Amino acid sequence: MTHHIVVLGAGYAGAYTAGSLARRLDPADTKITVVNAEPDFVERMRLHQLAAGQDLKKRPLADMFAGTGIRLRLARVEAVDVEHKSVTLDDGELAYDTLLYALGSTVADHSVPGVAEHAFHVTGRAAALRLRDHLDGLGEGRHVLVVGEGLTGIETSTEIAESRPGLKVALAARGELGAWLSSGARRHLRRAFDRLGITVHEHTSIERVEPARAIATDGTVLVSEATVWSGGFAVHPIAARSGLEVADTGQIVVDDTMRSVSHPDIYAAGDSAYAIGENGRPLPMSCASAGFTSMQATDAIVGRLTGREVPSTALKYYGNHISLGRHDAIFQMVDGDTRAKSWYLRGRTTARLKNAILKGAAWGMGHPTFGMPTRKHRLTASTGRSAEAATA
Predict the structure, then answer these.
(1) What DSSP element (H or E) covers 191?
(2) Alpha-carbon distance 264 to 21, whole Å?
């Protein structure tokens, strides 16, 4: 009798946790299945590059998990039945003993009319390729409008402006561009926008998107043959529909070990988890948060299944690493209240640092057996092992 661990989603959080569990748990006691809709690991942190016209290395999940014992099931998740401990997929059902929910997030349209019909986004590979194809069809001098002054909006607008200098790129910001950065980093950001020729419309909220323009709340009309929506993230509604306790955001409410507060056999990691950091605030949806929550979820699952102590991972947010095209970037450190510190990095060296971090993360995902221990942990009888296996 084996304990079946099902991981929903193979993004940064899901793929990392699955690989870590495979490294640490004995396959005689456990079976790990990863469910993902796409056959490849998607470097979401680079999708703005893909949309701008750059090619990304393909990373097949089958190759990543080869030799780990992890079973890959290519399917789309439709529902989770928390009472019967099963997942409904578009190709059938899948039962679990322990579930890790890591389905990530998608773009939040905030119910703005026209976004779903006419806007583009870069929160998924298919969406980024759709934007790329559209940009390929635009002639010189056409207008691209990026809506949203957060990390995604800044990175997408600068990447497109650098890669496609023939287009007129603009960004609509609800407030001041880079207001959350330190004064020095904010000045560097504005210089980068000026260098790339990006027009900034500050204090501009978009209330409607049309095929070739966007309308602001004050009636201003912004011409745009390609409107790119980057107004935040939203999680999939599957968790809320399942009966799990969720926050207003739809994220699964977890304790400090990433365990669902309503269903103890379910864990969440990445954007799907409503986790409270050491500062008492919810962790932001980010790659950094995916790393912290994944490590904690892994430790908790291993600890509880093997009867070991569950260690605690520090849930801190250290800063923002923002690419400004391929040759410039900003790394802004933040304090315990996520307010910008005066200290920051900028320029080519910072761009190389971010590229190295992303390459390292992708390498780690692609080599989940690296550092595989010679002795793996056995499960206790109370967690689903047979008595014979417990004494083996």
Answers:
(1) helix 183-196
(2) 18
Contact of 29 with 380, CB cutoff 8 Å: no
Provide the 3-class DSSP secondary structure of residue 253. strand
Examine the domain organization and report whether 46 and 149 are in the same domain. no
pTM for this entry:
0.91
DSSP 115-147: HHHH-B--SSHHHHHHHHHHHHT--TT-EEEEE
Task: Note the pLDDT of residue 372.
Answer: 53
- Please say if the pLDDT value at position 388 is more than 80: no
Q: Which residues contact 73 (CB under 8 A, 6 or more apart)?
A: 33, 34, 35, 36, 89, 94
Phi, psi angles (nearest 5°) of residue 175: -125, -140
Q: H or E stretch including 195?
A: helix 183-196
Question: Do 114 and 102 reside in the same domain of the chain?
Answer: no
Under 8 Å between Cβ of 114 and 208: yes
Q: Residue 206 is part of which domain span?
A: 110-229
Catalogue the long-range contacts made by 313-321 (C-beta closer than 8 Å, 24 or more residues apart). Answer: 314/278, 315/256, 315/275, 315/276, 315/277, 315/278, 315/283, 316/277, 316/278, 316/279, 316/292, 317/277, 317/279, 317/283, 317/284, 317/286, 317/288, 317/289, 318/288, 320/151, 321/350, 321/353, 321/354, 321/357
pLDDT for position 152: 94
* 16 membership: H or E segment, kind and range: helix 12-24
Residue 371: per-residue pLDDT: 57
Number of domains comprising the chain: 2
**Percent of the residues in the chain that have a pLDDT greater than 90, as a whole number:** 76
Q: Which two three-digit tokens encode residue 148?
A: 């949203």
Asked whether residue 374 carries a pLDDT value surpassing 60, the answer given is no
Q: Which of 171, 195, 229 is the last residue of a domain?
A: 229
Q: For the chain, give the mean pLDDT.
A: 91
Tens digits of per-residue pLDDT, 312-368? 877 777 778 999 999 999 999 888 777 888 989 999 999 999 889 888 877 777 676
385: pLDDT confidence band, cut at 50, 70 and 90?
Answer: very low
Q: What is the C-alpha separation between 297 and 100, in angstroms, rounded?
A: 8
Q: Supply φ then ψ for residue 309, to 5 degrees.
A: -70, 140
43 within 8 A of 362, measured Cβ to Cβ: yes
